[in-house]
Amino acid sequence: MNAAVVVGSLLAILLVQTRWSHAVELKDHDYDQMLDAMEEVHQKCPNITYLYSLTGGKTNRTVLGKRLAVIVLSDNPQIHELGK
Fold it and tell me: Which residue ranges make up each domain of the chain?
């Protein structure tokens, strides 16, 4: 299972549990669609989300040339809080 599928599955679960299912269509997403969905959630909920890449700049990519995008959902999304 690739990272996009895992992230997509977790995002779908979160959207259903928080009643945000209207924010993103619940379906299988390819890589580009998943990035778009993550960006859409971040744009709709900027106070509780933080979107960043684990792979950094343009030259630091996966072996397939893709970035590893991460979306954090929290009351303090840019602060790592132990135990949360």
Answer: 3-73
